[in-house]
Amino acid sequence: MKTCQLFNAITNAAPALEFNFATFHLSCRNRTVQHDGEQRHALSQRTFSANQQPAPGTVQVWEIALDMPASVVAGAQACLPEVELVRAKAFRDESTKHRHILAHAALRCLLAHKLRCNPREITFQIGPFGKPALPAERHAALHFNLSHSGELALVALCDAAEVGVDIEHIRPVRDPIALAKRFFTPGEQDELAAAPPEDQINCFFRLWTQKEALLKATGQGIANGLQRFEVTCRGGGGLVAMDGEKITETEWSLANWSPHAEYVAACAVYVRNATIALKPFSFADI
Ligand SMILES: CC(C)(COP(=O)(O)OP(=O)(O)OC[C@H]1O[C@@H](n2cnc3c(N)ncnc32)[C@H](O)[C@@H]1OP(=O)(O)O)[C@@H](O)C(=O)NCCC(=O)NCCS
Questions:
Q1: pLDDT value for 41
Q2: Pocket flag, ligand 1, residue 145 (CB < 6 Å)
Q3: What's the CATH number for 3-280?
């Protein structure tokens, strides 16, 4: 693994797309769900600008393609310490193993680039519900979160607050309404039921990713907290209620978008009106 080359690849990556959480209203780049005119209006307000140097407090979300040739996987593997290699070897399916290696190598390389260290040297502290974090005594000001689904992973980095990210490959769900009854709040269930049948799967995953991103930001995970946050797809997405109380103002910023056709993603950070910069991660030079 040629670490320097990888760092060059990261810093020379294609220009970022940047948006502000407060004004970002993109449901899906390729398959827009439109529940009402409100969303169409919101879509037209979307503004992107290229910016390689995000301001402090910006969340950087890196998009990592996970289906790569064996030579790239071999290079990525060299970024992982023994403990991660042992984890990866536990996957029997080769493609799942390779995707795991690539996602975790990208995470470590991005962190190592920020911390100016070797990707293999990074150690994590694991929170009570499994959230990995950098050791607080050394790197309290760098927060991150990883999500992977199918052929894509996202890594979110933020120097201002805890961040959560979720990506889901949109796949068939036999009965999204029945599933929503188990996991969603009554308000979310109503919104899903009101969506046109052809949009219900998309709406389901948009609600799901937003809830999961919030719960991953808190570190709680989905095991006990799915009723805690109520979200919506309307107006491009957002937080509606917390712990049963409707929200008028919040410190939470929540964005929901489609990285690619058949994928939906969300990012949450406890920073009012935060800005998110989306960037492709390149394994090209490994
Ligand atoms: C975290 C969680 C939401 C992930 O769901 P998912 O959609 O399958 O996975 P994603 O790809 O979005 O995210 C996985 C990554 O999130 C991170 N992660 C793990 N636990 C996390 C948590 N509690 N909060 C935030 N991030 C977490 C890890 O980097 C993980 O990557 P890895 O498994 O490859 O190491 C889910 O596993 C969960 O709710 N875990 C909590 C479990 C729990 O409550 N355990 C009880 C105590 S032991």
A1: 25
A2: yes
A3: 3.90.470.20
